[in-house]
Write a structure and sequence with these properties.
- This is DUF1467 family protein.
- The structure is a single chain.
- This protein is mainly alpha-helical and 91 residues long.
- It has one domain (3-76).
- It is built from 2 helices and no strands.
- Helix 1 packs across helix 2 (50-74).
Protein backbone atom coordinates (compact mmCIF):
# COMPACT_ATOMS: atom_id res chain seq x y z
CA UNK A 1 0.00 0.00 0.00
CA UNK A 2 1.36 3.39 -0.97
CA UNK A 3 1.80 5.86 1.93
CA UNK A 4 -0.68 8.34 0.42
CA UNK A 5 -3.32 5.61 0.24
CA UNK A 6 -2.66 4.71 3.87
CA UNK A 7 -2.94 8.38 4.86
CA UNK A 8 -6.23 8.79 2.98
CA UNK A 9 -7.67 5.68 4.65
CA UNK A 10 -6.45 6.91 8.06
CA UNK A 11 -8.23 10.25 7.50
CA UNK A 12 -11.43 8.36 6.67
CA UNK A 13 -11.07 6.34 9.88
CA UNK A 14 -10.41 9.58 11.80
CA UNK A 15 -13.64 11.18 10.60
CA UNK A 16 -15.54 7.96 11.35
CA UNK A 17 -14.05 8.05 14.85
CA UNK A 18 -15.26 11.65 15.28
CA UNK A 19 -18.85 10.44 15.11
CA UNK A 20 -18.11 7.40 17.27
CA UNK A 21 -16.46 9.45 20.05
CA UNK A 22 -18.69 12.55 19.93
CA UNK A 23 -21.56 11.31 22.16
CA UNK A 24 -19.34 9.93 24.94
CA UNK A 25 -18.27 12.00 27.93
CA UNK A 26 -20.60 14.91 27.18
CA UNK A 27 -22.51 16.40 30.10
CA UNK A 28 -25.29 18.92 29.63
CA UNK A 29 -25.67 21.97 31.85
CA UNK A 30 -28.52 20.24 33.69
CA UNK A 31 -26.35 17.15 34.36
CA UNK A 32 -23.49 19.36 35.54
CA UNK A 33 -25.80 21.09 38.01
CA UNK A 34 -25.64 24.46 36.30
CA UNK A 35 -28.30 26.98 35.36
CA UNK A 36 -29.75 26.75 31.85
CA UNK A 37 -28.91 29.81 29.77
CA UNK A 38 -31.85 31.06 27.68
CA UNK A 39 -31.20 30.80 23.95
CA UNK A 40 -29.07 27.66 24.16
CA UNK A 41 -30.20 24.13 23.48
CA UNK A 42 -30.84 22.05 26.58
CA UNK A 43 -28.79 19.25 25.01
CA UNK A 44 -25.73 21.49 24.45
CA UNK A 45 -22.61 20.40 26.33
CA UNK A 46 -21.81 22.31 29.51
CA UNK A 47 -18.08 22.35 28.72
CA UNK A 48 -16.64 21.04 25.45
CA UNK A 49 -12.99 20.07 25.87
CA UNK A 50 -11.79 19.99 22.27
CA UNK A 51 -8.26 18.82 23.12
CA UNK A 52 -9.54 15.76 24.96
CA UNK A 53 -11.97 15.13 22.11
CA UNK A 54 -9.17 15.20 19.50
CA UNK A 55 -6.98 12.89 21.57
CA UNK A 56 -9.78 10.34 22.05
CA UNK A 57 -10.67 10.53 18.36
CA UNK A 58 -7.06 10.02 17.30
CA UNK A 59 -6.66 7.02 19.62
CA UNK A 60 -9.82 5.34 18.30
CA UNK A 61 -8.90 6.10 14.67
CA UNK A 62 -5.38 4.74 15.15
CA UNK A 63 -6.69 1.51 16.67
CA UNK A 64 -9.23 1.05 13.85
CA UNK A 65 -6.62 1.81 11.18
CA UNK A 66 -4.19 -0.58 12.87
CA UNK A 67 -6.75 -3.38 12.64
CA UNK A 68 -7.44 -2.47 9.02
CA UNK A 69 -3.74 -2.48 8.12
CA UNK A 70 -3.09 -5.77 9.92
CA UNK A 71 -5.97 -7.29 7.97
CA UNK A 72 -4.55 -5.80 4.75
CA UNK A 73 -1.13 -7.33 5.39
CA UNK A 74 -2.29 -10.67 6.86
CA UNK A 75 -5.38 -11.26 4.73
CA UNK A 76 -7.66 -12.36 7.57
CA UNK A 77 -10.77 -11.18 5.72
CA UNK A 78 -10.69 -10.92 1.93
CA UNK A 79 -13.21 -9.63 -0.62
CA UNK A 80 -13.96 -13.23 -1.65
CA UNK A 81 -15.02 -14.05 1.92
CA UNK A 82 -17.58 -11.23 1.81
CA UNK A 83 -19.19 -12.31 -1.48
CA UNK A 84 -22.53 -13.91 -0.63
CA UNK A 85 -24.05 -13.68 -4.11
CA UNK A 86 -23.28 -17.31 -4.92
CA UNK A 87 -21.57 -16.40 -8.20
CA UNK A 88 -18.10 -17.87 -8.56
CA UNK A 89 -15.35 -15.46 -9.63
CA UNK A 90 -13.04 -18.19 -10.89
CA UNK A 91 -13.36 -20.05 -14.18
Amino acid sequence: MHWTSALAIYVLFWFLAVFLVLPFGVRTTHEAGGEHIPGTAESAPHVFLIGRFFIRTTIVATMLFGLFYLNYVSGWITADMLDWSGVSRGA
